[in-house]
Amino acid sequence: MYTKVEAEICGKVISIETGKLAKQASGSVVVRCGGTMVLVTAVAAKENRPDAGFLPLTIEYQEKLASVGRIPGNYFRREIGRPSDHEVLTCRIIDRPMRPLFAAGFCAETQVIATVLSADQQNDPDVLALTGASCALSLSDIPFDGPVAGGRVAYIDGQFILNPTAKELAGSAMDMIVACTRNAVVMVEGRTNELGEDIVLSAIFYAFEQLQPLIDLQENLQQSNGKAKRTVEQIVVDEALLAKVREAAAGGMGTVISTADKMERGRLYDELKATVIAQLDESGERAGVIGDMVSSYKKALMRSMIVDRQVRIDGRKFDQIRPISCEVGYLPMTHGSALFTRGETQALVSATLGSERDQQRVETLTGEESNRFMLHYNFPPYCVGEARMLRGPSRRDIGHGNLAMRGLSAVLPSAEDFPYSIRVVSEVLESNGSSSMATVCGGSMALMDAGVPVKAPVSGIAMGLIKEGDKVVILSDILGDEDHLGDMDFKVVGTRHGVTSLQMDIKIAGVDKAIMAAALEQAKTGRIHILGEMEKGISQAREEVAEHAPKYFVHKINPDKIRDLIGPGGKVIKELSAEYDAKIEVDDSGLVKMFTINGTLAEALINRVREITAEVEIGAVYKGVVKTIKDFGAFVEILPGTDGLIHISELDVKRVSKVTDVLKEGDEVEVKVLDVDNRGRIRLSRKALME
Tens of pLDDT along 654-663? Predict the structure, then answer.
C-alpha cells in the first residue's frame, strides 16, 4: 500500500513514502527534502545463523551522477565499483547508530542500500539516507529496535540551523551530524571551528529535540505499513555449564584483567581460555560455547572491577592519561615528521608539502572538488601483533583518517597565506586504543615541524563509559579493551580554546545530557594535559619550511605578459620548469606561483621570469643583442622576446652611411629607449648614450 507522510522541520518539509518503489525488498522508502530524493532498501537472508556469533550487516550508500544530470568523467562513463571516501564515510554514519539496535541473537545476512536518485545540490542526501535506513528497517520484518533519526547542525551568527543548505553550511562554524532515538542521542560526528564544549553540547541536544518529528513519522508509517517482525530464538544459557566455566576461570581471570601490558594480557587470557576448554570439554564439541562464556565472564568481571572497585585494567585513575613521549624530526628526508607514543599506542606521522597541482581532485554530486589538505591513516596488521593480507584502506581506516583530518583542518592557514598543498600520513606502529587520536597529536606536531603556520596545536583524546544501572564511570584515554568491553567511544579533538572535531558511538540505548557534559569536560582536561606533553617536543611552527620542502615564491606580472611567459604551445614555461626543476603555475590575473627544490634555484628562476616579462621603460638603458640588420637600421633584442629599432640616424654622433659599418648581427650593444608608440613599437638610440 502506497503511503506518504511528511513533516515540516525548521522550515523544511521532509517526506517519507513507501509502497511505490522497490516493493520486493523487505523494507523500502524514499526520503525527500526539496529536490533531493534517496531510495533506501533493507533485506535480510531468510536463514538466521546464531552460530556465526555476530550480525553480518552491510551498509551501502551510492551517489549516482545521473541524479544531478551529469555523466561520469572517467573512461568508463559509469560509476566505478569502488565507493568514494564520502560514500564510505556516509556508510559508516548510517551503520554506527543502527548496529546496536538489532535484536540479540539475530545473525542473518542483512543489507541496507541507500541510493541517491535526485540531488538538488542544496539539501544533503547523507542525513536523509540515515533516516531512510532506519525507516526501511522499521518497516521490514527484520528485528530492529528503532526508529532512529538523523540530521546535520550548522552554527551561524550564534544560531543553530538544522539541515542547512550548501550555501549556509559554507559559512558555518560547525558541521555536525547527530543521530538519535526517541529517548537519547546515539551517534555524533562532525567538526567545529574551535567552539566551546557548551556550544557543542547545546548543538547536539538542539538536534535531538528538532529530530523528534522524524521519529513520529517513522512510527506512524510502521503502524500503517510495517511488517510483523521475525521471531528470534533466544539463546538458552546452560546455567550449570556457565557456573562451571566461572569456577574454572575465577582463579586466573583476576590476573588477566589486572595485567597492564596488552600482549601479556592477551597471552594470559588465551592460556586461561584453553585451560578452561580442556578441563570442561574433553570431546571438543562445545569449545565455541565455552569460549564465549569465558569472554562474557571477562567482560562482566572487568566492568565490575571498574564500577565497584574503582580500578582500571592498567591501574590508572579514571581521568588519568597514559605516559606520553614525543619526538619531532625523526625522519630526516621528510618535510616534517613526529613520533607520538601514548602508552602502548604509537603513530609515526609525516607531513609533505606540495604545489597546487598536488591537490586531490574528486568528482562529487556538486562537481569536481579540489582538496588542498589530505590526511591518510594506515593501520597495518603488525601494529596489533597480527598477520593478515595487506589490502587497500578499510572503511575504518578512511573513517579514522577523516576524523583526524577534520580536527586538524580547523587550524590550517588559508591558501592565500600558505599556498602549499599539504598531505599528512599516519602509520600506526602500535595500537592499544586511541590510534586515531595519536594520529591527531602526531599530525599536529609533524605540521609544525614542516613549518606550516598552524593557528594552534591540536590534540585528541578518546573517552569511554561504563554504565551499570545508576552507576556511571567516565574513563579518559581508553585502552582497546575498555573500548571493546565498554558502552561508549567518544573521541574529542581540539586546541586549548575549543573543539575542532568529535565522534561519538554508543553501544547502549543512549546517554543523557548530564553524562555527555561530564564526558566533554573531562575530555577538555585530558586534551589540555596532552597538549602540554606535546609542547615539550615542539610548541609552535618552525619559522621556515623544512630544508627538503619545496620553496614557494609569488611574482606578479602584467596579464598581457602571460603569453610571453608561457610561450607558443607552452614552450617557454616548460623549458623554465625543466631548467630550474620547478613547478610554475600562472593564473589569469598574472600571479605566477613558483615551487622549486631550494632557495638558490628560486632566486635564479624569479630573475628569469622578470627578464621574460619585464616591460620596457622610456629613458631606461639596456644591453641588448643585435638580431637583424636592415638598410634603415638595426633591430636589437633588449629583453627576452622584445625587440626595438635603432634607426641609422641614431647609431652614432657622426653620420653613418651603412648600418654594417657600426653593428653586425650578434653584437652586444648598449641602447637607450627613446619612445614606445601606441602600437608597442620601441625606438632605441645608441647615439644618445654617446652624447
Answer: 998 899 989 9
Which residues is 584 bridged to in the sheet? 594
Q: Residue 296's beta-bridge partner residues?
A: none
Helix H segments across 211-338?
A: 212-225, 239-257, 262-280, 287-307
Contact between residue 122 and residue 208 where contact means Cβ atoms under 8 Å apart: no
Of 203, 152, 192, 94, the C-alpha closest to 406 is 192
Euclidean distance between CA atoms 6 and 33, whole angstroms? 10
Cβ neighbours of 228 (radius 10 Å): 6
Q: Is residue 157 helix, strand or coil?
A: coil
- The β-bridge relationship of strands 110-118 and 57-63 is parallel
Q: What is the pLDDT of residues 38-67, one digit of tens each?
A: 999 999 999 998 877 789 999 999 999 999
At residue 194, does pLDDT exceed 90?
yes
Residue 404: other Cβ atoms inside 10 A: 32
Which three cell numbers mark 196? 566551546
**Which single residue is written with the C-alpha cell 616548460?**
574
Contact (CB, 8 A) for 423 and 516: no
**Sequence-distant (≥ 6) Cβ neighbours of residue 477 within 8 angstroms:** 320, 321, 322, 342, 343, 433, 434, 461, 462, 526
Question: Which residue shows C-alpha cell 592499544?
Answer: 432
For residue range 239-295, what is the model confidence (pLDDT) as tens digits? Answer: 899 899 999 999 899 999 999 999 999 999 999 999 999 998 877 778 888 998 999
Q: How far is CA 155 from CA 93, 161, 441, in A?
A: 20, 6, 26
Residue 433 contacts residue 400 (beta carbons within 8 Å): no
One-letter amino acid at 41 equals: T
- C-alpha dist (Å) from residue 529 to 256, 442, 458, 679: 30, 15, 12, 69
Q: Which of 285, 284, 185 is nearest to 506 (CA)?
A: 185
Per-residue confidence (pLDDT) for residue 614, from 0 to 100: 78
8-state DSSP, 684: E
Cα 546 to Cα 556: distance, rounded to the nearest angstrom: 25
Question: At 37, is the secondary structure helix, strand, or coil?
Answer: strand
What cell does 157 get?
551568527
At residue 690, does pLDDT exceed 90? Answer: no
Q: How many CB atoms within 10 Å of residue 115?
A: 21
CA angle 439, 511, 520 (to 5 degrees): 45
Whole-angstrom Cα Rg for the chain: 33
Single-letter amino acid code for the residue at 272: L
**Which of 59, 69, 65 is CA-nearest to residue 110?**
59
DSSP string, 568-636: GGGHHHHHHHHHTTEEEEE-TTSEEEEEESSHHHHHHHHHHHHHHH----TT-EEEEEEEEEETTEEEE
Cell representation of residue 605: 628562476
Contacts of 655 (CB under 8 A, 6+ apart): none
* CA gap 537, 326 in Å, rounded: 6
The Cα 18–Cα 136 span in angstroms is 9
Report the distance separating Cα 256 and Cα 247, nearest Å: 15
* Cβ atoms of 490 and 185 closer than 8 Å: no
Question: In 3D, which of 646, 653, 649 has the Cα closest to residue 667?
Answer: 646
Q: Going by DSSP bridges, is the β-strand pair 373-378/421-430 parallel, antiparallel, or unpaired?
A: parallel
Q: Tell me the pLDDT tens digit for each residue of 5-33.
A: 999 999 999 999 999 999 999 999 999 99
